[in-house]
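Try it yourself: sequence plus protoporphyrin IX containing FE, in.
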Amino acid sequence: MIKKFDNFTERKKEFGFLTEIRKKAKISSIMLSMNKQDWKRTRAIVNPAFSTKKLKMVLPLIERSCDTLVEIFSDISRKNNGAELWRIFGQFDMEVILAAAFGCQVNILKGEKNSLTKAAIGIFTPNLYNLLSELCTQIPFSTKLFGLFFAKRLKLTQYHNTARNFILDVINQRHLQSYKNTNVDLLQLLMEAKAEDDQICPGSKQLTDDEIISVSLFFLLATYETTSNLLGFTAYLLAMNHDKQDKLTQEINNYYQCNKDSSLYDAAHGIEYLDWVINESLRIYAPGSMFSPHEKESHHPMCFMPFGAGPRNCIGMKLALMDAKMCLTSLLRKYKFERAPETQVPLKTSIGLSQSPVNGIFLRVLSK
Ligand code: HEM
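Structure, out:
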């Protein structure tokens, strides 16, 4: 992944069946499974959007979503029943990525109807296509056949179309308004790299229309699924381990006592125990084993890599951690997670495109 990266640049190929569905929706291969040349070209274009400096520019929008989440949790705590928090974290993360990647200020948490969230849920829910994917791996040459047949019929194709149309709308609006975004978000970087007439010259730093859609879509999906899982699993683990939740809350309070005017970003990054908790959550729901910074020293550096490693590691890692830490810091200042009668113990998870809770995550939220 690092020293011999040039020999191992490519990751798992996207499954043929999904490729057919994407082709039908005019979306090219997702970034995760691009071949070496396409990946190098694309990664070089999108890397600048994920620098710490660029990410800090969207802090006000993330803080805004954190504030809304705190309000929503206030309603949940008043009802005093178990609530399904995973879906709410998903809405929160959709707001964050729409802000960071597309400069869109939306109110999904406040109930604004959004076809995109529905599409994202549909694309990720393990369903018929998982079953068919399995089947296709067992029967040689069936992929193309099944792919073509089902691509026309499955809701999955509709969901991809919805997502594609959403992204096209944002692009068109920007063209119409001669959009000037001083933040330079992801979409603007992609649009500036658009190749004339969709012709990619060798060695150029350009993208075709379908690639622009595919890269944007993958950012939406990667955030929606992974970061909401991280938040949901962490809330669940804290509810099941009161002593750890109390310690984390104590650390947050201590931090604010010493740094009264701290920004949410500084607090989230200044509380070391929060980093431990997040890493432990990523360890439990991902392979590998490691704990604290002291333990880190005694382990092989590659035995814990929830975000991959080397030049092709997760491009969204900083954004995901920033988002999760800011969210947990603002919630734990006011609320406590508790096991509810509906909480599933042990939690059942399934591996679709990523690991997620099968039946959501039900917890009680207590106001402090
Ligand atoms: C807790 C949250 C997340 C986890 C655990 C996670 C995990 C991963 C992992 C394991 C990989 C594969 C790395 C490799 O092959 O070495 C990956 C790739 C990727 N992730 Fe994430 N991810 C998260 C959040 C995000 C977010 C928020 C975004 C986008 C904003 C994102 C975008 C991507 C992209 C584009 C790739 C492909 C990178 C490439 O091929 O160059 N991820 N992620």
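One thing you can check immediately is this: The CA atoms of residues 187 and 216 lie 7 Å apart.
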